[in-house]
Structure formats: structure tokens, C-alpha cells
Automatic annotation (TrEMBL), chains A, B:
Organism: Caloramator quimbayensis
UniProt family annotation: Belongs to the FldB/FldC dehydratase alpha/beta subunit family.
Cofactor(s), by name: [4Fe-4S] cluster
Zinc-finger is among the record's keywords: no
Name of the molecule in the record: Benzoyl-CoA reductase/2-hydroxyglutaryl-CoA dehydratase subunit, BcrC/BadD/HgdB
Length: 419, 419
């Protein structure tokens, strides 16, 4: 990485602590990613993005801010990117995926809490995440208990605008979400000094749909037997989607897909078991499950998670006569995301079964971040439905540490041999 | 207890398993309650209620049902009792407080979950709770993650009507809760076949306010130094409030308060430290914390919990011109309850400090049921506020088992000596 110390210093970062984090990442990335065989050329761009993860993109954010632009931190796929972009702001996903931040998170949060939440709060408390440091405003949401209350702690550091996500999906709830989006629009107009016009919002709706289409195109390719791209690489792309420049990202993903289209012609069977992962999100650089599973005789062909299909499935209806209709279209699209924080959540079960069939998965691994209660309680119904369809499933609850990696590997190996 | 086997059998209970539960309770009650010295005569009624906990009251519910009446199970102080009573139904609080039910709860729920939730689900799964068995409908709410998703499991056993409690307290949220109450009214009218009239609802608003006044009168007496009634006894009364006949309960609590008024004249200082407990609810027969604390040189003078002040503080405004206004009054009163499932929840911190001063508490014990995330994350802000006021506070996270009782006793003893 180039010399960004001055940039990081201006962001009031703890440089000493940050150095420790920076030292570790290239090693892990090399071990997990660069050790893979026969990676598509198109992954070079994403290798580069990771190598510059706290560098070039941060510089871009800094230039944006120097020109008066604002940076908005988000933590959830329900928050409409369209609105952020239409206000001329840059949105960055701040969910944390590293064990490095847990200790600092536990200074202000209870230990018995989701590691993703402890990590992002820890990233802020330790002042070692330049994305966090670059944000003018954070956008939280009332999704799970942990996040809902974590905003109250984070608000002491940076102002948090909390959107009240409904907990059910009745028609009145879609109306409620539409109102929340309108309020979010007002808030972001106030912050940026820019009015969100109907024209501008139509543009960003199309841009975000184009990003969804690019990811959908990538995932469709994984339906092939075997997949022309590893689950690890696909996960990385899905993680980078949360903070890279949208236009550039769309271009690079499509270039990669062009290359993968070519690869299809010469694919050879590889005898690997095909796995669908479902459950809680995997924030960068959480590659734990994918690296364990793909070190065995298996490939992950799809993720029914926020860092998977939930991010891009369903497009916003682009036809609208006016602002109100367009906002409703946005609300309706986002309310289709099937997260377990909603009750009931039968749609998710239908999605899992559909994806198992479309992606020809041999088995399902249910990935539950430690202490995530919405997903862990929901497991029973998912398991029942999969049993009915004779789809093998195993449940794994885990955090970011390496303590249980050996145990997980043994269990997954047994599962893979059985399916 | 009298012979209720036929009654229990008709309720499709697991008699064998229930016998085990019945055998244990009198012993525990004797050890915890009857060992207390100098209890008010008025507690005899509540002793009797406990001795008949699965008997007489169940018989009353049975008679009510034989006359075509309905029984509604509830799990939260946000659910308006006024509505249940106005429909001619009987409401019973079903939150579970016994370790006995945990094992059965864990058959369908994850282990890392609040014991109160595991207990009530276990009570249903094991068919050993005659209150559960007597219910025609259950009313759930979107409060915490665990409960929100538990209704989906419980619905397989008995129909659950879920009310969507808001997560914030803006004016629009009060409107939302008003709508939810209206929907609840429709649902319960449908179930009971009774129309809830303006006159009837006014009556039950007054009745429920009278119950609140009786409890408030009791708690006011605890402000005396020393309190004329133990925390254990006061807790028991608060627990029984959830399922006893309202009119009888009001009468018996007022009779007890008359006796306590007399007692005040001859109260002698007892040198005990005065404790405020704040946090998560204590469902019957969860007497763990109170029995530990009051076995030491301390008395619990007030509980800022759902089985404490949150149950009765604030009355419903009785003046209303029409049904719509009355429902709004009900919505407004309930939305004042300061549970940690709301964000923000600054009102609770103000309440705790206010009660410490009014009840002249020497210290605060923060009681957090295991895995309850809303309350555990909120602790940090409560602790900060109490530190500012120089009010000593200690945090205890625990479940229903006796494994940590010794440890808790040691910690509390040290706390009491220090304050």
C-alpha cells in the first residue's frame, strides 16, 4: 500500500493500533485467496482493491469530501443506497468482519453479543477504521436487538440517523417504510445541502439496479456444474460491493463475467459437493466459513445471506410517474428482502429451497453468528422445511475467532461425505 | 390442593410430568416465603393463591369457559388488559419463571436464549401448565428478538395474535400502536363474539386503573424506612397481579395496605440496606434474586421492572368523548412504559434515578436475564448515569438455575457491605 499515514492521521486514527491491523491482513489474504488455483484474471482487480483497502478508496472519499461531498456509513441491506447516491453522497458499508476489533467492542458492549456488532463498534472505539473515520453520518436501523441498542452507544461518537424498519410485512408496513425513506431523504438533503430530485433518484435507481444485475449475472454463472468461480471469490466480490465505487464495480464485475462466460466452454467436472450457505452476513474480512469449506472437497455455489442473494435479488421498478411513486417502488423492493428480523418470514424458506434447486446444491449449511437470536430461533422451521424436501442441512453457530475452526472443519467434512 | 386431576385431564395435560412440578413448589414456597418473620396477616390470601396456583383459579377459568367465555394468554405489559376484559374475556399472564420448563423449551428453541422465553415455550411443549392449556388464544408482541420469533414456534400449538409494538416513541408510533389496539379489538371481538362498546371499555379502563392504584398504594408504603413489607412479598403480589381476578385482587391488596398503614405506627429501624432492582421481569415462581438478597442484611424496596413499577405507573386517562379518544388514551398510557426494546429509552434512566431518591435506596442491582440483549446493551448508559449521581450499582446476568446462586450471594454481600 502507498503512504497514507498523513491521510490516516487527518482522520484522527490510532496509527499505532492500525499498523497492527495492516500487518495482518496481507498474510491472511495470501493464505486464503492467493493460494487458490486457476483464478480468473478478472479477480486481479479485486485483489488490488483488497491490497488498497485502507488506501486508495479512502483517498477517493477524502477527495470527495474536499469537494464538499458527504460520506454515509451503513450497516444493513434494507437501507436504500439509491437515496444516498441521489443526494450526491458516497455510501460505505461498515459492518465489521475481523476478530481484531472485538476486544475494543467489548469495552462498551456486552460479551454475549453478535461479533459483527462488537466488531463495528470496536472499529469506531479503537479509531482504526478509516471508513468509519471518514463518515459524516451513520445510518442505523431497527433490525435486531443488538444493532438497535448499539446505535445508542455509537451515537456518542458520530451522529446516527436510525430508520425504523417495520417488523411485519403488511400493506401498512410498506407504507411505514415508505415514510421512513422519505424522512431519510429529508435528513440526507439537510446533511448534504443537495435536493434529491425525481430525475436524480430515477438515475440512481437505474444505477443500483445495474449493480444488482451485475451481481445476479455473476451468481447465475455459479449455477454451472462446476461453478467457474470459487465461493471465496464470489464472496469477496459481494463484500466489496458494499463500499466500492458503483460504476467501476459494475464494470469490473461485468468484465469478470465476460471472462467466466468463456471459461464455461472448457469447464471440467471437479467432483466437488455443492453447498448453499444460508443465514447471517459475512462482513469483510470474514472469510472463515468459506475458507474452511472450500479447503475440503466442496464448493460454495450460492449464499442466501445479506452478503449474498439478499443484496441483489429483486430490482426496483424503474417506471414511475412521480417522486412518490418512485419512493414507493423503492420501499416495495427493499421490503422483499427476507431477513429473520421480520415475522413471519416464510419467504426465506421458499427462497432457500428454490436456490437449492436452481443451484443444484447437494446440501445446506446454516450459518448463524454467535448470539444471533432471530436466525437461531428461525432455524427450526428452516430445518423442518428442508427435511420435508430431503435436503441435507447442518447448523453452525460461530464467531470470528479461530478457536473452533478445527472443530468446524471436522463437522463439515463429515457432512460433505454424508451428502 | 384439592383434587383437580379430572380438570387437568380435560385440559390435555401431561399429568405425570405435572405431578413432578406440583411436588416441588410447596417446598420451595415454604423455604422462601413461609420462613420470613412477622409477615402481615394480609399475606395469607396470597399464600392461599399460591397453594391453589394450579387449582382454584383454573377451576374459575373452566367455569368461565363453560359459560362460553374465552381465556387469553399474554406475555407483556404492553398488551392492554382493558381490551381483554371489555370483551368479557379473562386474561392470564403466561411468562414462565421455573427452571422446570427449560428442558422442554430447549427442544424447540436454541439454548442461548432468555430463560423466560424458554420456560413459557417449555410450559406449552410439556403440557404441564394449566393456564396455557386453558387459553383460547395467545397474544404476542414484537418486543425482543427472542419473543418475536418464539411466536412462530408457539403458533404451531395455539393460535397467536401478534401485535406489532413500535420500536420508537414518535407521535407516529403512538398512532401505530393505536391502530394495533384497534386491530386487537377486532380480533378479540371475533374470538369472543362480544362487541366492545364505549361504555364497557370505559368500565374496564377504570377497573385497570383501580388495580394500578392498589399496587401504587402498596409500593408507596415501601418508601417508609424500614418498609412494612418485604420485597419478596411485594414481588409475589406483583406476580399474582398478572392472573388473579382483578376485582378480588384489588380488594385484597387494599386490605393488606390498610393493615400496613397500621404497621407504620410501630415500625422499628432494622439497619438493613435498601435496594432498588432494575431490569428484566421476574415471572412466577422466579424468586431467586429476592430470596438471595433478602437473606442478607438488605431489603428490596422497589423494582423498576415489568413485574414492578412498569406494570402500574401512569394511569389511562379516563375522560374521553368517544371510543377513538379512549383507545388513544389507552395507547398513550401504554407507550409510556419504558422497556429497553424501545430506542432511545432515556425515560427509564430518569425513572431509575427518581425511584432511587423516592425510595431512598442505598444501591441499585441491575438484573439481566441471560441473553437478554436489549437490557444488557442498555446497561452502559444506566451505569454512566448512576455513576454521575454517585449511586452505587452492580450488574447481575443470570438464569433460573441454582448453579450460580452461591456466587451471586457472595457478590451481593460484598456490594451491600460497600454501599
Amino acid at each position: 500500500m502507498g503512504d497514507y499515514r498523513k491521510l490516516w492521521s487527518n482522520l484522527n486514527m490510532n496509527l499505532e493500533k492500525h499498523d497492527v491491523l495492516c500487518a495482518v491482513l496481507p498474510e491472511i489474504y495470501s493464505k486464503v485467496y492467493l493460494s487458490q488455483n486457476d483464478r480468473p484474471e478478472g479477480m486481479n482487480y479485486f485483489n488490488f482493491v483488497v491490497s488498497e483497502v485502507h488506501g486508495l478508496r479512502i483517498e477517493e472519499l477524502d477527495n470527495h469530501k474536499k469537494q464538499g461531498g458527504k460520506v454515509i456509513g451503513t450497516f444493513c441491506v434494507y437501507v436504500p443506497d439509491e437515496v444516498i447516491l441521489a443526494a450526491g453522497a458516497i455510501g460505505v458499508g461498515l459492518c465489521g468482519g475481523s476478530q481484531f476489533w472485538i476486544e475494543d467492542g467489548e469495552k462498551v458492549l456486552p460479551r454475549n453479543l453478535c461479533p459483527l456488532i462488537k466488531a463495528f463498534v470496536g472499529a469506531k472505539v479503537s479509531a482504526t477504521c478509516p471508513y468509519f473515520q471518514s463518515c459524516d453520518m451513520l445510518v442505523g436501523e431497527t433490525t435486531c436487538d443488538g444493532k438497535k441498542k448499539a446505535w445508542e452507544i455509537l451515537n456518542d461518537y458520530t451522529p446516527v440517523h436510525v430508520m425504523e424498519l417495520p417488523q411485519m410485512k403488511r400493506e401498512k408496513n410498506i407504507e411505514d417504510w415508505k415514510m421512513e425513506i422519505k424522512e431519510f431523504i429529508s435528513r440526507i438533503e439537510e446533511l448534504t445541502g443537495n435536493k434529491i430530485t425525481f430525475e436524480k433518484l430515477k438515475e440512481t435507481v437505474i444505477l443500483c439496479n445495474d449493480k444488482r444485475k451485475a451481481l445476479k449475472r455473476l451468481y447465475e454463472l455459479r449455477k454451472n456444474i462446476p461453478s467457474p468461480i470459487s465461493g471465496l471469490d464470489s464472496l469477496l466480490i459481494s463484500q466489496i460491493a458494499f463500499y466500492d465505487d458503483p460504476q467501476r464495480f459494475i464494470q469490473k464485475v461485468n468484465e469478470l463475467c465476460d471472462e467466466l462466460d468463456e471459461r464455461l466452454k472448457s469447464l471440467q467436472p471437479n467432483g466437488k459437493k455443492r453447498i448453499l450457505i444460508t443465514g447471517t452476513p459475512m462482513a469483510i474480512p470474514n472469510w472463515k466459513m468459506h475458507s474452511i469449506i472450500e479447503s475440503l472437497n466442496a464448493e460454495i455455489v450460492v449464499e442466501e445471506t445479506c452478503t449474498g442473494t439478499r443484496y441483489f435479488e429483486n430490482f426496483v421498478e424503474e417506471n414511475a410517474n412521480d417522486m412518490d411513486e418512485l419512493i414507493e417502488n423503492i420501499a416495495r423492493r427493499y421490503m422483499k428482502v427476507n431477513c429473520a428480523c421480520f415475522t413471519p418470514n416464510a419467504g426465506r424458506i421458499e427462497d432457500i429451497i428454490k436456490y437449492v434447486k436452481e443451484y443444484k446444491a447437494d446440501g445446506v449449511i446454516y450459518y448463524n453468528l454467535s448470539f444471533c437470536q432471530t436466525y437461531s430461533v428461525e432455524y427450526k422451521k428452516v430445518e423442518e422445511a428442508l427435511n420435508k424436501e430431503n435436503i441435507p442441512v447442518m447448523f453452525i453457530e460461530t464467531d470470528y475467532s479461530e478457536e473452533d475452526s478445527g472443530q468446524i472443519k471436522t463437522r463439515v467434512e463429515a457432512f460433505i461425505e454424508m451428502i
